[in-house]
Amino acid sequence: MTSVILEPTKTNNDEYLQNLVEQNKAKVSAEFLNDLRQTAVTEIQNLKLPHRRDEEWQFTDISELLQTNFQVAQNVELSTEALNPFILPEASASRLVFVNGYYAANLSDVSGLPDGVFVSNLSEFAAYAQKQEFVKYLGQQKGDVFTTLNTTGLTDAAMVWVNPDVVVETPIHLLFLTIISKTAAISQPRILIVAQRNSKLNLVEYYGAVAKNCSDVPRNLPYLTNVVSEIYIEENAEINHTRIQRESGDGFQIARSAIVQSRDSRYTCNDINFGGKLSRHQLDIYQNGEQTETNLYGLTLIGREQTSDTHSAIYLNHPYGTTNQLHKCIVDNAAHAVFNGKVFVPKPAQLTNAAQLNRNLLLSPKARINTKPELQITADNVKCSHGATVSQLEADELFYLRSRGLTEENAKHLLLDAFAAEILDKIPLKSLRQRLSQCVACRTLEIE
User: Ramachandran region of residue 434, left (φ > 0), alpha (ψ -120 to 50) or beta?
Assistant: First the structure.
């Protein structure tokens, strides 16, 4: 049977967006957000939803998403017992929880954090700090339609604010859970993180679904998570950021993370994508100072008919900047992975060092990968490299392991575990590394 890709007409585009915006209007907002939201409502009138004719979306079909009538998610209580599988021991007293996009104060616990760091939702933060302290950060990332849509419905946000010279040893866990229901719901989480001068923190951003059994199993219960994260790293500050996407087998996730780095700052992102029927993560890095360091490590593991799209853009705007990016994909069954990484090195960015590599394993004849690493260089005194590989499991490696007494199945598992471990080992939390390693083992058991 030949599949037909349904491209949205402008009329359908307008109606779909207008319906979502109108639902956002019905929600009550804090007064200081009204101007920001109204500006977004005006801007979205001039934007359109993407389709396959757009270069940035040519490999990702969102027609199924556009055929789903999403309703704004309801505020539903979640029991402590249901939360237990998602708790990280290292962050048991430094956890912020949102359920269906709503702040869950009864499930959150930040008592283990030191003075000088504030972690809470936007309403509590507004009482903690003067408006002018964060208004210059919140809502500054604009441009694409999904980011603007998120802003039209902005009523709350997860806030992390670290004062100058504060080193936060305890990991901060931002947990966003969706309770799966028969109603196709949309939630729009917003995150604002500000690490001020000479500060340091370790952050875990986790997206998951609450289900009776493994959430990976599709149940024809779709939902949409449209998330925007804004991260500001001031002079000589450092953030180690682990982002986990474990939406359900019916979930859609559209995400954008915008990171702005000042001089001498350091940012590391461990981006793990295992869940979702369709997911897309746009990661934008702006190096706004000299001697700035960026490390991006990614792992995508998908099967069945999942689609996972990772787009990144790194702007090295000043001298002595460095960036290192390694993104790996394991694609099984009829799944489809997309990677598009861009590195911009303009003339002012002399003496920079940029490396980018995308490595992919296809485990099935129907599995697909579209990869496009890009370097755009106008500076003349730089060290830059980029590349991509697409392959199957090496026959020689399988033969070597089988000659040592392993079965073919165990040999495949061992190779896949080693392939994924290069990324998972960079996650600083031991309990999270172990859980994700178990997920890799469980998912790869389907390999024939």
Answer: alpha
10-residue mean pLDDT series, the chain (448 residues): 42 75 68 82 90 90 91 91 94 96 95 94 70 74 88 91 96 96 93 96 96 79 96 98 95 97 98 96 97 98 95 96 97 96 95 96 94 92 93 82 81 89 96 92 63
Closest residue by Cα to residue 101 from 83, 127, 76: 76
Find the Cα–Cα–Cα–Cα dihedral 427, 433, 437, 440, rounded to 10°: -50
Q: Are residues 48 and 175 in contact, defined by beta-carbon separation less than 8 angstroms? A: no
User: SS3 sequence, the chain?
Assistant: CCCCCCCCCHHHHHHHHHHHHHHHHCCCCCHHHHHHHHHHHHHHCCCCCCCCCCHHHCCCCCHHHHCCCCEECCCCCCCHHHHHHHCCHHHCCCEEEEECCEECCCCCECCCCCCCEEEEEHHHHHHHCCHHHHCCCCCCCCCCHHHHHHHHCCCCCEEEEECCCCECCCCEEEEEEEECCCCCEEECCEEEEEECCCCEEEEEEEEEEECCCCCCCCCCCCEEEEEEEEEEECCCCEEEEEEEEECCCCEEEEEEEEEEECCCCEEEEEEEECCCCEEEEEEEEEECCCCCEEEEEEEEEECCCCEEEEEEEEEECCCCCEEEEEEEEEECCCCEEEEEEEEEECCCCCCCEEEEEEEEEECCCCCEEEEEEEEEECCCCCEEEEEEEEECCCHHHHHHHHHCCCCHHHHHHHHHHHHHHHHHCCCCCHHHHHHHHHHHHHHHCCCC
Please give the Cα distance from 303 to 309 (Å, whole number): 14
What lies within 8 Å, CB to CB, of 407 at 6+ separation is none
The answer to whether residues 367 and 339 touch, using CB atoms and an 8 Å cutoff, is no
- Rounded CA separation 123/127 (Å): 7
Strands 238-246 and 200-210, how do they pair?
A: parallel
Compute the distance between CA of residue 139 and CA of residue 265 in angstroms, rounded to an integer. 22
pLDDT tens by residue, 305-364: 999 999 999 999 999 999 999 999 999 999 999 999 999 999 999 999 999 999 999 999
From the number of C-beta atoms within 10 Å of its C-beta (0-12, 13-18, 19+), residue 265 rates as: buried
In this predicted structure, what is the pLDDT of residue 123? 78
Give the end-to-end CA distance of the chain in Å, rounded to a whole number: 25
CB 75 within 8 A of CB 103: no
